[in-house]
C-alpha cells in the first residue's frame, strides 16, 4: 500500500510500499488544539457508496471534540476534476459513483461546505489514520484517533454511519412492520449467491415478516422464498428512497454491502461477510456472520 495525500489538488505519494496505511497510534500526538476553529477539508480516496458511508459519522464526531471546527467535503465537480481517471471503478449498475457522496451526506448538518478546486492547499484524506495491533477497528475511529481524539473520547461518541432525511423523504414512511433483504455485491468475484446457510439460520426468527428485497439471484424456490413469501422489490425505488426504507426496517439481513453499512446505526443489521477479518470496514454493533458460521460483533 502507498500512502497518498492531496496537495494543491494533486494526489501525491512518496512511492514507499507499506504494510498499513497511516501511523502507529503510539506515535500520534494531539493534532489540533481543543479550541480549533479552522477548516478541516477531507475526502476519501476510495469512492463506493460504502466507502463514504463508513466515514459519514466523521463530521459530527469531530465537532463533538472541536465544536468550532468547520468541515468541508469535496463537491461533485471537485471529484470529477481530480479523480475522474479512477472513480468509475467504484460504480455499480447504472449508478454514477460521483453521486455517492451526495446520497450519503445529503442534509448532513455537520458539513459546512463542499469545496472546489483551488479552495485549499491541503486536503486531508482517509489515509491519515492511526492503527493499533487490533485489525478490527472502524476506519472512522482510526481517522479520529489520528486527529486528536482519544480512546476515551471514542467511548463517549457514536461515530457510526449517519444519514439525514428531509421532511419530504420522511413523509414516505411505511406504515407496517417490515424487514429488508439484500443479496448483491459490487465486487465481480462476489456476485451471485454465496454459501448463506448460516445467515438463513439467523433469519428464521423473523419468518413471515414482510420484506423489501434486492437480489442478484432469483429467490423463488429458495429457502429465502419459504421464509419471506411476502416481498416487495426494492429496486423500484431511488437510492435515497432505498436508504430511507432500509433505515426504518426492523432488520436488515444480507450480504456485506455499502448500502447495508449506511443504515447500520438505525436498524438491526445481520450481515454475512466473506472475509476472515472485516478490518477497517467493520461497524460497531453489527452482527457479522462469517462463511464458517463464526460471528463477530464489536
Q: What would your notes on this structure say?
A:
- The protein has 11 helices and 15 strands.
- It is an alpha/beta fold.
- It has 2 domains: 155 residues, no CATH class; 130 residues, Rossmann fold (3-Layer(aba) Sandwich), CATH 3.40.50.
- A 7-stranded mixed sheet has the order 11-10-9-12-13-14-15, with helices on one face.
- The longest helix has 9 residues.
- The model has no long low-confidence stretch (mean pLDDT 96).
Structure described in brief:
The chain has helices spanning 49-53, 58-65, 76-83, 100-105, 139-146, 151-156, 167-170, 197-203, 223-227, 239-247, 258-262, and strands at residues 2-7, 10-17, 23-24, 39-43, 70-74, 113-115, 122-125, 130-131, 179-183, 211-215, 231-233, 251-255, 268-273, 287-290, 295-296.
Radius of gyration: 20 Å
H/I helix tally: 11
Task: Work out the number of β strands.
Answer: 15
- How much of the residues is beta strand, in percent? 15-25%
Structural class: alpha/beta
**Overall morphology:** globular
Largest sheet: 7 strands, mixed
H/E series: EEEEHHEHHEEEHHHEHEHEHEHEEE
Q: Enumerate the spans where pLDDT stays under 50 for 5 or more consecutive residues.
A: none
Oligomer: single chain
Please state the average pLDDT score: 96
Number of domain units: 2
The rounded distance between the terminal residues' Cα atoms is 26 Å
Strand order of the largest sheet: 11-10-9-12-13-14-15
Percentage of residues in helical conformation: 10-25%
Amino acid at each position: 500500500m502507498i500512502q497518498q495525500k492531496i496537495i494543491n489538488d494533486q494526489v501525491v505519494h512518496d512511492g514507499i510500499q507499506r504494510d498499513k496505511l497511516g501511523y502507529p497510534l503510539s506515535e500520534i500526538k494531539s493534532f489540533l488544539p481543543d479550541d480549533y476553529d479552522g477548516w478541516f477539508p477531507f475526502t476519501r480516496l476510495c469512492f463506493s457508496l460504502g466507502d463514504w458511508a463508513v466515514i459519514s459519522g466523521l463530521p459530527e464526531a469531530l465537532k463533538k471534540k472541536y465544536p468550532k471546527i468547520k468541515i468541508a467535503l469535496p463537491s461533485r465537480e471537485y471529484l470529477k476534476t481530480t479523480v475522474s481517471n479512477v472513480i468509475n471503478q467504484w460504480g455499480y449498475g447504472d449508478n454514477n459513483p460521483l453521486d455517492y457522496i451526495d446520497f450519503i451526506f445529503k442534509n448532513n448538518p455537520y458539513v459546512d461546505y463542499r469545496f472546489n478546486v483551488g479552495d485549499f492547499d491541503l486536503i486531508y484524506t482517509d489515509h491519515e489514520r492511526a492503527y493499533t495491533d487490533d485489525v478490527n477497528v472502524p476506519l472512522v475511529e482510526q481517522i479520529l484517533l489520528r486527529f486528536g481524539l482519544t480512546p476515551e473520547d471514542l467511548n463517549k461518541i457514536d461515530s457510526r454511519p449517519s444519514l439525514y432525511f428531509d421532511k419530504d423523504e420522511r413523509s414516505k414512511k411505511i406504515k407496517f412492520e417490515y424487514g429488508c433483504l439484500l443479496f448483491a455485491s459490487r465486487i465481480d468475484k462476489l456476485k451471485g449467491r454465496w454459501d448463506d446457510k448460516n445467515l438463513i439460520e439467523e433469519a428464521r426468527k423473523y419468518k413471515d415478516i414482510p420484506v423489501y428485497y434486492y437480489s442478484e439471484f432469483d429467490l423463488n424456490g429458495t429457502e429465502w422464498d419459504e421464509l419471506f413469501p411476502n416481498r416487495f422489490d426494492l429496486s423500484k425505488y431511488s437510492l435515497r428512497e432505498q436508504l430511507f426504507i432500509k433505515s426504518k426496517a426492523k432488520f436488515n439481513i444480507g450480504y456485506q454491502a455499502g448500502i447495508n453499512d449506511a443504515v447500520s446505526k438505525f436498524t438491526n443489521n445481520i450481515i454475512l461477510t466473506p472475509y476472515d477479518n472485516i478490518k477497517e470496514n467493520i461497524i460497531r454493533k453489527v452482527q457479522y456472520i462469517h462463511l464458517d458460521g463464526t460471528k463477530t460483533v464489536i
